[in-house]
Amino acid sequence: MRTIKYRAVSKELKFLRQLNARMTLPPHEKRYYSNLEKGFKGEQIFDSYVEKLSNDFLVVNDLLLKHNYTTFQIDSLLIFQDMLYNLNVKYYEGDHYLEGKNWHKISGTEIKNPLLQLERSESLLRQLLQYHKFNHYPIESLLIFVHPEFNLYNAYPELPAVFPPQLQRFLIHLNEKPSQTNHKHEKLANQLVSLHQSDPPFSQLPEYEYEEIKKSLLCNRCFANMSHKERKWVICQKCGSVEDDQKAIMRAIEEFKLLFPERKITTNGIEEWCGGDIPSKKIRRILSQQYQRVGHGKYSFYVG
Ligand SMILES: [Zn+2]
Question: What is the Cβ-side half-sphere exposure of residue 81, based on CA atoms within 13 angstroms?
């Protein structure tokens, strides 16, 4: 297999990770964030399985496409010689049941029918391929359930889904399916990547104020506070992860820009944002090296 497009953390998830680490999210947003995080985890697990396959096919992950003013998402598209797999990866956990076309958690709570999303993406993908004259590939769309503890009562054999006990066989099937890709398949993959819409609008945005947000250097891995260890290093107070302080400060500046795009970047501002633990001299040096200074003296700020 060859990956043409890798999966990246979406801007929305980056954003919510920051907010979650720096404030108490309202319950609704917290749930939404936790679902995004779980979804991403499921996709990463599936990617790690697919990456081990050696068959000749192309992988395009995480596509956000638009056709006829309608946006749709594809978690993983596998391009084989004679067909495409449109895979929608789910990290649902625990018992669920089907009642007619409705999907429920065992508690009775109805959840969004994932088949609707899958069918919609297949139909739009087919139209988009026809529009771009790639109409000779049949598409098979499947829900892929990767959490080992997922169970669906009342599931029926025609359901286009791969359940956890079937996952291994499905991967073997992908690996053994006769396939040889060439420049035409690559052209298709590249065309789809070029149509990918980056940075979609966020579905919901919790309200927050600068004053109520925690200011600190946050760990790359677990989002806990980091503090200075020695001259050049910062250490996470929770997981013990050690990082070059310049890298951590640069990341903090980007987080600041993400959360407060309207605020000016100044030495004092970033010093406060990093929790006051980093000498302003160091922050000034990093800002002047990595960003562009506008103005002079007291009123100067940085862009970039
Ligand atoms: Zn940590």
Answer: 10
Instruction: Tell me the CA–centroid distance for residue 226 and ligand 1, in Å.
Output: 8
Q: What is the DSSP letter of 83?
A: -
Q: Are residues 122 and 235 in the same domain?
A: no
What stretches of the chain adopt beta strand conformation (E)? 2-5, 58-67, 70-79, 84-90, 94-99, 102-105, 110-111, 139-145, 150-153, 161-162, 226-230, 233-236, 242-244, 292-294, 301-303
Domain span at residue 231 reads 210-303
Cα of 19 vs centre of ligand 1, distance in Å, is 16
Q: Kindly tell me if the per-residue pLDDT of 230 is higher than 90.
A: no
User: Would residue 200 count as lying in a domain?
Assistant: no
pLDDT of the residue at 231: 79
- How many A from CA of 239 to the centre of ligand 1? 4
Residue 222 alpha carbon to ligand 1 centre in Å:
4
* Domain count for the chain: 2
- Quote the mean pLDDT of the chain: 94
304 C-beta neighbours (distance < 10 Å), count: 11
CB proximity list for 28: less than 8 A, separation 6 or greater: none
| Ligand 1 centroid distance, CA of 97 (Å) | 38
Question: How far, in Å, from the CA of 16 to the mean position of ligand 1?
Answer: 17
Region 271-299: what's the mean pLDDT?
Answer: 91
Q: How far is the CA of 146 from the centre of ligand 1 (A)?
A: 26
CB 145, CB 45: distance < 8 Å: no
